[in-house]
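The protein record quoted in full:
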Amino acid sequence: PRTCGPMRTSSTLSRLLLGVFLLAAASCSDDAPVKPPPPEDPCAKAGGPLEVRSIAADDDYSMAVMSDGTVRCWGFNVANRCAMPDVDLEVWPPRQSQGLECVKQVSRGAEGGAVTRADDGLFVWSTDRHGELTQGYDVGPGVPVLIEETRHVRYVDSRNHTIHAVEESGAVIRWGLIWSEGLEIENEWFPTPIGALPPTLEVSAGAPICALTTDQTLWCWGGNAFGGLGDGTTLDRREPRPVEGLQVAAVRTGNGTSCALTPNQEVWCWGRNDAGQAGQPALPGEELEEKVLF
């Protein structure tokens, strides 16, 4: 009689068990493919107590970005600048602005404001008298609108009826109330690039306008009646020009005065100083055309 049949069956079973073992071992090895985790939601709300992440203040109203991505506003709500169309003229205590979520930075304006979102979207609200909302939007003041002509915006300044947005690439675009070729004021209804600038981190669009570039230089342009451009003159300039002699980590401009923070924590100011705002004894009717450390 043949006795090899059972032996073959046992051998076959052993081979099957060995194959299963090897497959299981392979699935546990470092070379096995690992399923990637789901993409992180940039708008996921942070846990813990509610905190203020950043703030933008004006003469008569202020806005704060909270840790949950919402915005609080208080002060004078003329033209629904607080994005609160159904609220009285004066807002106190601070209240949550409507239609603003997932916010990482806020900028206030004369008749509205703008925010950048964690997903790189740009929302603007305004009376739209000068094209701040770009063409094609028919909404009332105080209603935030997604500006679809922009992509991946990381910083925005919405002062003086003009929107300056810095895209992820470092390009700066603007629209709204701008200076024309003849240094006249006109409305620009579509986002337009400012081609004369190096890659930029942020823009401070007070008066004058200054851009902080990725190499820590400062470029300024606009009105210069008080020497705020930092070029030693009081000549207005339409095109950006570098401010010589400074490495800059942050900049703020407003109403004729410019101030810059350097990487070694020095503060330099120049321009209008009739109330001592440039850090020097007040000189009514005079301006600081040269940069002053204080």
Notes: The radius of gyration is 29 Å. Confidence is low (pLDDT under 50) at residues 1-9. The chain is about 10% helix and 40% strand.
